[in-house]
Design goal:
The protein is α+β, with helices and mostly antiparallel strands. 34% of the residues lie in helices and 25% in strands. The protein is built from three helices and five strands; from the N terminus they run βββαββαα. Helix 1 crosses helix 2 and helix 1 packs across helix 3.
């Protein structure tokens, strides 16, 4: 299967790649950069990576850990016969003046509270409903 990896970055790690798409971001003045193809698989991985990036900023603030930049990469694979995900893996880079133990504490907290990864891990229900006016 083709590469299904995505990367989101903000702050000092924000990508300047001309192909990156940039969005405003409540946690960083320069916004967030997204590097991903536009397929369902990439968007699934992007939802996990984006949630983790946001939660690094939120949890770092809650724990009093300064963060200058964050980069999250996520990827996964699918069974091409059933199109069922085989899972998602993600990695996080944090630019912080804090010590390694403090940053590790932030990442552990994020892994426990990040909403999208938690929903995916739990096997969230997804169902189609009629569009407005098309009942």
């Amino acid at each position: 299967m083709d590469d299904l990896g995505v990367t989101v970055s903000a702050g000092s790690y924000r990508s300047t790649d001309p192909e990156a798409v940039h969005f405003p971001h409540r946690w960083s003045d320069e916004g967030v950069a997204v590097q991903a193809a536009f397929t369902g698989a990439h968007l699934l991985h992007l939802s996990a990576a984006g949630c983790v990036l946001n939660d690094v900023y939120r949890e770092a603030q809650r724990l009093g850990v300064a963060v200058a930049g964050v980069r999250v990469s996520a990827t996964g694979d699918f069974d091409t016969d059933t199109w069922v995900s085989r899972g998602i893996t993600y990695s996080v880079e944090v630019d912080s003046p804090a010590g390694a133990d403090d940053v590790a504490g932030v990442l552990e907290a994020v892994d426990q509270v990040a909403e999208i990864p938690r929903a995916i891990r739990a096997g969230a229900t997804v169902r189609r409903v009629p569009a407005a006016g098309q009942e």
